[in-house]
Amino acid sequence: MRVLLVNHFPLQGSGSGVYVLNIARSLEKAGHKTCIITPENTTDYLNVKDVKLHPVFFKFKEEIEGQQDFNFACFDPHPRSSLLFSDMTENQIAQYEEAFRKAIKEEIEEFKPDIIHAQHIWLISKVALEFNLPVVVTSHGSDIMGFQVWPKFHGIMHEVADNCRKIIAISNHSKEVISNIFSKDAQKVITISNGYDEKIFYKEQYNKEEVLRELNINKNYDKIVCFSGRLTKNKGIDLLLKAAKTYEDGNTLTLIAGFGQEYEYLSNLKEKLELKDVVFLGNRNYETLRKIYNISDVCAVPSRQEAFGLVALESLACGTPVVAAKEGGIPDFVNDKVGILIQGENISELEKGIMQIINKEKTFDSEYLAKYARENYRQDLFIDKLVNIYKENLN
After folding, report:
1. Other Cβ atoms within 10 Å of 257 Cβ, number
2. Within 10 Å of residue 146's Cβ, how many Cβ atoms?
3. 3-class secondary structure for 326-342?
4. Secondary structure (DSSP) of 30-54
């Protein structure tokens, strides 16, 4: 089978980008052919040799032939773009759609896909429906947030939901929300959980001091708390910093990997709270993230909103327990055998959960955590289900 995957975001810096790359690789491994159409604003984009890529270029720091005269748009700021869909002019929306229309048309002629798998109930998915091919759409949650705050896109989203063959939700919570908004047809919306790439995230022995030196941290710590993700309000990093005020003891390090619109605010909050052992690492590659998860005692996921929570899964795959808010899809896979679930916006519960783990009042078997993730949530496990959806919806 030949599958054309189209996404609104690059393969790095967004959950949907990671999702698309993961399923493309798993489909290729299973003997299918894939092509990914994705926005980009740099020629130094992720070098993927095992999957065909078709970048649609947008303006950022370098001049690229054929690029649009504006950056790619987002639901909330991406590490490489701050343009929101709500801020786009009508002319920019038309240019945006035309750029992806051209790319899809080219790949239909050259790649000859059997089916289009679009990401988000949004603009590009509407464009994908213009061609005489079956279209299935995965909702990643950010599109639903867009629906809630940007009424001008409601018509587009209903058009996509009404005319695509299937809507794939990445968690049971997302399925319920999508069904309530878009479809009363019980068969239209299905849940296929996110999976992680077991070749990237796995349990490994690393020398903690060496990893810290690689991160330009020259002090040794007994205990490490980590966070990974975009620095946006939804991710709740401010809650983690306020919790750190309680658990920070001179021997506990908090590592925050990622970048985003909240960086300046969070940096100022760190200073205001007089936190001495919190380090903002900026964006880091997958290999570094694997090392961070492996040397950490706990991964904090204090999200205010979270469609799935792939970071929590990646941490578990590396044998590290999580303290996570009961938001979105997180309760689908985080239980008391692999972590601690807390109420969202509850700093005292976040503090307590982290301290229980770093002080070894509550312990977890790291081998069990890694096995649990590998046996239940590696990406390969969901490919057969996804392929069956494709086959059921071919013309």
Report:
1. 21
2. 21
3. CCCCHHHHCCCCCEEEE
4. TT-EEEEEEEES-SS----SSSEEE
Q: Counting beta carbons within 10 angstroms of the beta carbon of residue 258, is it exposed (0 to 12), middle (13 to 18) or buried (19 or more)?
A: buried
**% of the chain at pLDDT higher than 70:** 99
Residue 93 confidence (pLDDT) above 90: yes
Which pTM was predicted? 0.87
All structural domains of the chain, each given as residue ranges with its CATH number in brackets, are: 2-195+379-392 (3.40.50.2000), 208-376 (3.40.50.2000)
Give the tens place of pLDDT for each residue, 293-319. Answer: 999 999 999 999 888 888 999 999 999
**SS3 assignment, position 207:** coil
For residue 279, list its beta bridge partners: 255
Produce one character per residue of 348-379: b if its CB has 16 or more CB atoms within 10 Å, e if not: ebbbbbbbbbbeeebebeeeebbebbbeebbb
